[in-house]
Amino acid sequence: MNKFFTKKLSLLSFIFIPIIFLWNPNWLGFLGVQPYWPLFWLLPWSIINGSINGLIFGLFLGLILDSLTLDSNFTQIPGLIFCGFLFGRIKLNKDILVGHFRYGLICSFGSFLCGTLYFLQILFRNFSDINSLMFILGVKNILAEVFLTGFFAPFFCSQLLRMFKFSRRQ
Amino acid sequence: MLVIRRISTSRWWHKKKNWILFAIFLFLVFVRITKGSFYKDFYYFISKPFWPGQFQKEIILESIEQEYSIKLSLLKKDNIRLRRILSLQELSNNDHISAAVISRKTGSWWRQIILNKGSKNGVEIGSTVIGPGGLLGRVNNTSLFTSSVTLLTSPGSKLGVWVDRIQINGLLVGLGDDYPSLILYSKDADIKVGDFVSSSPASTLLPPNIPIGMVHSIDETLKSKKTAKILLLAKPHVIDWVQILK
User: Fold this and answer.
1) Model's pTM, two decimal places?
2) Which residues touch A29 (CB under 8 Å, ≥6 apart)?
């Protein structure tokens, strides 16, 4: 039983992504925006399991997170699929310190991508009512999310990567 | 020599008593110049414990509170009676469900809260959610134990509202920021900053007369309609307990 849990640790941790997404701790926020939590899990998973796995789990994450948000007009799936595929092509860096910073940069880029794709959907949907305020809000959301995701990624991704590697070895 | 010495010791400024009198005189001049403000302030502090205000104020406030609660209950009865006559939608006090906010998204792309009461507790899709201050939003989705509420600030939110001062209906549209937009389809509407906005008495979606917010700023650039930013009275980012109206 114990072995089963250690073996499936990476998959079990997947369950916690929607929970943290819902928890949305205010004290971790910046300008009312939270880091983009799914990327912290998706990056180590895709690095270890490759692009196709990353793409599939990007889709799964997108499906779950879309079901938790009430806005049925917009979806997070394209951004997460793209990130999952992209992250799968990244090789591990031997230098641990450089690796940490790489996680931050990669997650920042991923967050920018997901945020931009989501914002484009909002713009496309409200094409007739576009105003400057909408742009300012969108850019604020994207930038705050990029900053926070990049800031926290080295902590979360490194730990998750270690956990996934350990789980794989078992 | 001796005589001179005697005269010098008897000068008026050598006497302490004279100096005291001079000091008192200066003080009185100061009091005169300041028109007695020193005395008044001194009197303020020594008479403070004996003021009639403190105790009397409590009695008066209590009386006012009682008067208001009696007036409110009479007005409520009147309102219900008139609504029955006009066959308008009614709001009953027995249909409230208290719920705690267990998840909150109020700053990012998504503007929603999740409550700890769901379909098991009788919450239905479309139920109105109010918090301290007024209307928060409507239940968009329910699970067995939880319900998700679309906030008024959410980009998808659209509600009919009533501007009480000018007696006109408008559409409150969430834009994703903290100030939803009120659209009045009349260029001549005399809306002003500070006008009170509540749920429309003629609305079929919401119970009537629920406070929503106040006009924060007005945009008159559009030709066919007037829009205004609304400052919401209920603050979803700090509220922990809400009430669901069935």
Assistant:
1) 0.69
2) A148, B107
**Does B107 sit within 8 Å of A33, measured CB to CB?**
yes
- What pLDDT digit, counting tens, does each position of A102-155 carry? 888 999 999 999 999 988 888 887 776 667 777 888 888 899 999 999 998 888
Burial code (b: 16+ CB inside 10 Å, e: under 16) for B56-85 equals eeeeeeeeeeeeeeeeeeeeeeebeeeeee
Yes or no, beta carbons of B108 and A22 under 8 Å apart: no
Domain assignment present for residue A59? The answer is: yes
DSSP state for residue A89 in the 8-state scheme: T
Residue A67 lies in a domain: yes
Does A63 reach chain B within 8 Å, measured CB to CB?
no
Homologous superfamily of B96-246: Rod shape-determining protein MreC, domain 1 (2.40.10.340)
Helix (H) or strand (E) holding A77: helix A77-87
Pick from A34, A124, A42: nearest CA to A75:
A124
Give residue A26's region: left, alpha or beta (phi > 0; psi -120 to 50).
alpha
* Within-domain flag for A51: yes
Q: How many Å apart are CA B160 and CA B201, to the nearest integer? A: 10
pLDDT tens-digit readout, B42-91: 777 777 766 655 566 777 788 888 888 888 888 888 887 887 777 666 65
When CB atoms are compared, the residue of A26, A70, A141 closest to B141 is A70
> Which domain range does residue A46 map to?
2-23+33-169
Say whether A141 and B156 touch across the interface (CB within 8 A).
no
Q: Are B111 and B105 in contact (CB under 8 A)?
A: yes
In a domain, A28, yes or no: no
Domain ranges of chain B: 52-86, 96-246
Beta strands B158-163; B96-105: pairing state: unpaired
- Which residues on chain B are in Cβ contact (under 8 Å) with A133? 175, 177
